[in-house]
Every structure is written in structure tokens, then in C-alpha cells.
Amino acid sequence: MRLAFFGGVYNNYLALEAAINDAHARGVERLYCLGDLGAFGPHPDRVFPFIFENNIECIQGNYDHSIGNDLDDCHCGYTDPRDNHFAQISYNYTLKNTSEKNRRWMRGLPTEIRFEFDGVRFLLCHGSPRKTNEFLWESTTSTHFLEKLAKDYEADVILGTHTGIHWKRQLKQGGFFANVGVLGRPENDGSINVWYTFIRTGQDANDSTLDVEFIPIEYDHQRLITEMHDEGLPQEFSETIATGFWTTCLEVLPGKERRGGQY
Amino acid sequence: MNSLARSNNIPSIGLSSLDELWFQVAGTRCNLECTHCFISCSPHNNSFGFLSYAEIEKTLEESIEWGVKEYYFTGGEPFLNPELTSILELTLTYGPATVLTNGTVLKSESLKKLRTAEDQCPYSLEFRVSIDGPTPEINDPIRGERTFERALQGVELLIEHGFLPIITMTQTWDDSQNETILKQFRQVLQDHGYTRPRLKILPRLQIGAEQQRTAGYGDFDRVTLEMLAGVDESQFICNHSRIVTDKGVYVCPILIDSPDAYLGDSLSAATTEFPMKHGACFTCFQYGAICTNPSTKAIE
Q1: What are the average pLDDT values for consecutive 10-residue runs of chain B, which has 300 residues?
Q2: Is A263 within 8 Å of B196 when comparing Cβ atoms?
Q3: Where along chain A do its domains lie?
Q4: How large is the ipTM?
Q5: Relative to the CA of B279, which of A117, A175, B178, B256 has its CA 20 to 30 Å away?
Q6: Interface check B96 vs A, CB under 8 A
Q7: Which CATH architecture has domain A2-259?
Q8: Are residues A142 and B70, on separate chains, in Cβ contact within 8 Å?
Q9: Which candidate in A131, A141, A262 is best for mutational testing of the B interface (most B CBs within 10 A)?
Q10: How far apart, in whole angstroms, are the C-alpha atoms of residue B73 and residue B97?
């Protein structure tokens, strides 16, 4: 089986389209999105046709829950006032520009998806299986913590997103955790591409059970920057798209992940 | 409300998971004697002693089955423990580590080893350096003469070794000054070569030395059952943490001087729920899990 997993789209419909095309070129059979369709970028409603037309199964991220239920903020879990300031600008814009029909659809999304292919039990979530907005960073998550999650939640493979940076960890007894990355913005490493995750199971895998591959995606980021500017979104956001470095939401980054950035 | 009625209205918090395991690695021994210290640490306070490498290794092994996500080291001043560097090197083979230091006794030789250990593992080693304000005039009366200057030298040393320390300030000023203080401190740190400072303001805990410096909690500074209605219990660290000391396992790093905070002699004996009857629990209620790093918080 060939499976594609997209993380936070953050209104970046241009990257979503590029990732879908890439996944189809690789012979994908099923596509999933792990939540946070909105935020950050321009024109929220342009994301949904790609989701519906490609039968992408979606999880409800914290952003989708907030937008879907007309809440006051994104419940992203930031604690720094500057981070919350920018998060609020992005949230207000996305709430205002997402249609009632799409908001209603997000309201009904599940918070986890489970399935089994080729004997591998998958559990898809947004932050962690136990909490939608839990940050699981590579540098602050022990292996035995993930192994306990896999055991408690009876899964072989757990996939999440939420932090914005992809990573993976092999667990004992064939278990696996991966943060699938996000399509919405680059990863604070100075590269302008975004990432998604392609998984092969069974006979499609190079080894006997599971192949997990992170795929870099180039897209028309200049067009995204122009549209962000035209929509009056903060220059700090388009700087991230242009440079690959995060300018906001920095306080929640652990030391190791922050060291790779510029700010 | 009389004491009997209040005792009937005290919520208890259970341990839902052991996400963060703390070590009182230097006991209550510190080279400083801060006037606001909630456990009154000093060069002469031997209420709690050092934890040894062997004791910590045993607990790290025990922590695996609990699925502990992160490890925290505090004191006293952790770097007074001569085994601390080896202890942190060992811990990084198990998971992420954070050490809370006053920054005045850091040594280049140790930081060099720790940076190598961090580079060789997937985990972060975080340093939280306590400096209680952006000037010696605010900091030194609380933490001691020349401690501002010495702690900043420690910060410079951490930066030289590629770490990005989190500077924590205990707030001894009015809320309205927070923004000015943060701005001023960012500038001071920039001037000392820390171009992207991570700053955190912490509330005062009105116990220990702080109780003498200002005042203790009032009778009504308590958490009640009504206050907890609809509150996410994970904002309290007693919901997902425990602390190991040389005298056994306690509920949280703040309350180790309270006899009722002792829960048992091992992790498995320390899972009982805890009644939030202390004034410090009220501060935790007001400010959330103040002891945990921002990268770990997830409050809904």
C-alpha cells in the first residue's frame, strides 16, 4: 500500500496542490491530512476543493476545532505574548475568510483516524494521541515515552504533525513514530521547501514491513508571498516563506530545534 | 470559611502520566542564599543532600516503564554536585534534560563535555538560568552581591558553547512593568552577545525564605473544588510529574519542605493523588505549570 500524509496546510493551497501531484506521481493509493488546514497563509477557502476532489481524509487539528466552532483563538498552546499577537492576526483572518460550509465541515472532523494495512496498525493524530495540541518535538520526546504511547493506544505506527518540523523514531518491536511535517511553511532551517511523508507497506515497501520517506516539496512560493501581501498579512509571515526561517511562534521551540533557525 | 469546611472543599489531583521526572540533584545546598527561595537553599541548608550518579542511574532505569518524556535537574545549585556533568551525560542517553542553575559556578570544561553529549544524541539539553531582573539593582538585593554580573558571565559561557539558555526571572515588581522589564533585559542580553534571548517571568512562591522576605499566603489563597470546575488538570505539574530527592519521592519541586508532599520511597510508591491544600497550589492554579519548559506545555 502507498500512503501520503500531509501535516498543517496553513492555507498554503499552492504547496498542497504540489504535494498532491507529487504523491500521485509516486502512485499513492490513499491520502490523509493530519489537521490545521488554516492559519498563516492567504485565501483559506482555496484549500478545500483540493481536499474534497482528492478524497483526502482529514483529522481535526486545534486550528480546525477553533475555526469550526467559531472560538476566540487557535488554542495553539503559545505562552509568549508576541507569539500570541501574531497567532491572533492569523486566526482572525482565517476565521473571517473561511465559508460557513467549510467551517461546518471542519467541526465534524475526527480527532484521530485508525486503520490497518499489511498487518500494520496506524494511528493518525494531530499533536499526540492523548492531546490535540501537545507538542512532540524530536529533541524533547524520549523514545520510551513514544513506546508507552504505542502500547497504551495499541498502535504500531503513530503519525502526528502540529510542531511544524518533521522527524521520525524507530520504536521497539517494530513500532514507529513520525511527525509528518507541514505543508504550510518551511522548517526554520533556511530552506524554502516544505515537507510531507510517503509511506509504503507490504509488497510496496523496500524492506518487508514499512518504508517511511520524507518528501521535500517545492511550490510557487513567490506567488504565495504576493497573495499574502495583497491580503494584508504580516510581513513577518511572508519573510518566513521567503527565507525558510521562522520569525514568530519561537518560544515553544526547544533549544536544539531553535538553534537551526535565525531568530 | 472554617478549617473543617475548607478541608472538605479541597480538590485532589491524580497522576495521569509521569511525563516529567525531576531530580533534587543538589539537595538544598546552594552557593547563594536568595531571599525569595521557596525552599530556603543556602551553603548551610542540609535538609536534602546530593543525589549520586548510582541513585540517578537506578531511577532512570525505573523511569523507562513509566514512559517518562523529559528529565529536570534542580537544587540548590545543581553544579555543586561534583557528579552533575556525568549525570547529565548519562541522562541524555535516556531522554531530554533540563537543568535549573544560578549560572555562577559553570565551568567551560563541563560545558564542553555536555555540548558533545548533546550533539551525540537526539535530545536537547536545556539550561534555565535564574537572574531576577535586568539590572544588578533589581537582582543583587535578592540573589546576593555581584550575582548579576556573575550570572551574566555564566550566560556568556553557555552561548560560547552553543547553548541557548532560558533566562528565568522571579517577578518582584508590579505586573504593569513586565513589558518594560522584558525589553530592558533583551537589550542587556544582546549587549552580552545573546542575540535571541529566551526570557521567562515566573511568579513568586510565598513559602520558605520568601515568606520571611514579604509575607506568606493568606488563609483564602487556596484552590477549591468550585475553582477547578472545567479546568484542565494538566496545567498542574502534580498531574504529570514527581520529584526524586535523597529522602524519597515528593509530589512536586515546590513543596519538598512540606511533610505531606512526601509520597513514598520509589516512583511506584508515589502515584497517589495529592490534595491541593497549599498556598503554592494556588499560584500553580493562577499561572499554570510554571516549572515546565514552554516547549512542553499544552494547555487546552
Answers
A1: 56 95 98 95 97 98 97 98 98 98 98 98 98 97 97 98 96 91 94 92 90 88 90 92 98 96 96 94 86 68
A2: yes
A3: 2-259
A4: 0.94
A5: B178
A6: yes
A7: 4-Layer Sandwich (3.60)
A8: yes
A9: A141
A10: 8
